[in-house]
Amino acid sequence: MRILLLSDIHANLEAMEACVAAAPGYDVVVNLGDIVGYGASPNEVIERSRQLGKTFVRGNHDKACAGLSNMADFNPVAGLAVIWTRTMLSQQNLAWLRELPAGPAFVEGLDGVQFVHGSPLDEDEYLLLLPEALTSMDYAPSPMTFFGHTHIQGGFLVGADDAATIRPVYETRDEQETFDFPLQRDARYLINPGSVGQPRDNDWRAAFALFDSDKYSVTYYRIPYPVKKAQQRIIEAQLPERLATRLSVGR
Ligand code: ZN
Predict the structure, then answer these.
(1) 148 alpha carbon to ligand 1 midpoint, in Å?
(2) How many angstroms is it from 22 CA to the middle of ligand 1?
(3) What is the Å distance from ligand 1's center to 5 Cα?
């Protein structure tokens, strides 16, 4: 089975469309959450996400924009974006957002694989470093977990006698590229496809990944997209300017 993994789209329609156009053939789309928040196209991105697939986990921004959590953990810029998003969402999309499930999610017929937003233990936990990742892999019931939330493409692995951080390596900063990562059957993995709509790994290109469960490999993608258009729409929407400027540096 070929699973297209989209995460942290954050209402960036321009980045999302570029990723969908660049995606190879797939059987199922799994969306790892943070569909909205930050970007200027929350309704369009929700509607497009629903067309693409039906497997979702909610993100912390989805919860906040749906009014299911307060914004205690949000910085002022993120909080303003939540308030803006709430006022823009249609009633129908707001209701849909409210019903999004907490992880882990599973895909029928795909054993040993789970999908979460933050970590296998806590949907709001940031897995940034190997020690935390190792702890959560110890507790994960599945050898393979796909996660988002950090906006950093890559992940972690633990084998029989080694553990490591995975970071894809690319040749350029501005072209469409892929990085193939073959998996080992006896290792445990946490794999982050990266953020479609607001990358924070110093690469402005939109990120996603494809998991091929038969070949047992992950292919990471970086896709240039009309970032100026996404930025202009954030400015026109009177969202905080920082949400526009950060897109072109990937931070
Ligand atoms: Zn996010």
Answers:
(1) 7
(2) 22
(3) 14
Nearest to 239 by CA among 74, 38, 16, 44: 38
Domain 2-248, CATH: 3.60.21.10
CA angle 93, 97, 102 (to 5 degrees): 165
Distance from residue 169's CA to the centre of ligand 1 (Å): 22
Q: Ligand 1 centre from 84 Cα, in Å?
A: 16
Q: Are 201 and 169 in contact (CB under 8 A)?
A: no
As given in the structure block, the two tokens for residue 156 are 């972690």
Domain boundaries, the chain: 2-248
Q: What pLDDT digit, counting tens, does each position of 67-79 carry?
A: 999 888 899 999 9
Digit-coded pLDDT (tens) for 131-140: 999 999 888 8
Confidence of residue 197 (pLDDT cuts 50, 70, 90): very high
